[in-house]
């Protein structure tokens, strides 16, 4: 049964409902993949403010080429080093894709938690795997712990996005000094999302009935 405003609406199949989830995730992954090329632009050779003062001629190109060969990643010299040093729009864009995935995953998790509610007095349209059955006073009770873990991670990523955007907005004049705030939140978000999605797929989705 389809639902709007959490109330019964018109019929749909479970497959149709899950096809919506798949579409959300595909779109999020596509957004993330498209954002990656922006992260490959380097500000090497811009020196202090982007003018390249005191950098040897050809330094940026040669160093960028060496890093690309060493890592196997197609790094390139940034088109405008003034922008690359004073702002971090590419990181904002890429983290926005992580946030987009987190928002979609949170929606999916909340739906699954409600669909599995009960089982006697809830919807009980799906059954979650019993990863941690039982409690001190309710034997056999199965809590949606994997979903709760996922949605907490999603909340953290959404919060990290706000902090990262604040850092990116503080690129005063020719240098953004909030780089530690930006990169710390970005790395945490990427790490948390990767770990959470792996655990969710392995310990929840795979055993869904």
Automatic annotation (TrEMBL):
Q: What Pfam families does the record tag this protein with?
A: Lyase_1
One MF term in GO for this entry?
Answer: fumarate hydratase activity
Recorded family membership: Belongs to the class-II fumarase/aspartase family. Fumarase subfamily.
Q: Which GO terms describe its biological process?
A: fumarate metabolic process; malate metabolic process; tricarboxylic acid cycle
Q: InterPro entries, alphabetically?
A: Fum_hydII (IPR005677), Fumarate_lyase_CS (IPR020557), Fumarate_lyase_fam (IPR000362), Fumarate_lyase_N (IPR022761), L-Aspartase-like (IPR008948)
User: Could you say which EC number(s) this protein's record lists?
Assistant: 4.2.1.2
- Keyword terms: Lyase
Indicate yes or no for the key word Lyase: yes
The name under which this protein is listed is fumarate hydratase
Enzyme class, spelled out: lyase
């Amino acid at each position: 049964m389809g639902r709007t405003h959490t109330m019964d609406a018109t019929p749909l199949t479970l497959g149709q409902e899950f096809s919506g989830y798949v579409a959300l995730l595909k779109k999020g992954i596509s957004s993330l993949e498209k954002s990656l090329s922006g992260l490959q632009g380097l500000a090497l050779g811009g020196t202090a403010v982007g003018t390249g003062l005191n950098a040897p001629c050809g330094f940026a190109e040669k160093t960028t080429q060496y890093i690309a060969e060493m890592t196997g990643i197609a790094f390139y010299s940034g088109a405008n080093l003034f922008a690359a040093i004073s702002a971090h729009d590419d990181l904002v864009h890429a983290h926005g894709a992580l946030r987009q995935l987190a928002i979609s995953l949170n929606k999916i998790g909340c739906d699954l938690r409600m669909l599995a509610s009960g089982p006697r007095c809830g919807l009980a349209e799906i059954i979650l795997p019993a990863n941690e059955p039982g409690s001190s006073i309710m034997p056999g009770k199965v809590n949606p712990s994997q979903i709760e873990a996922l949605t907490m991670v999603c909340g953290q990523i959404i919060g990290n996005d706000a902090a990262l955007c604040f850092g990116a907005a503080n690129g005063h004049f020719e240098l953004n000094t909030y780089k530690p705030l930006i990169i710390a939140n970005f790395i945490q978000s990427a790490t948390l999302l990767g770990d959470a999605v792996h655990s969710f797929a392995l310990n929840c989705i795979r055993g869904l009935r």
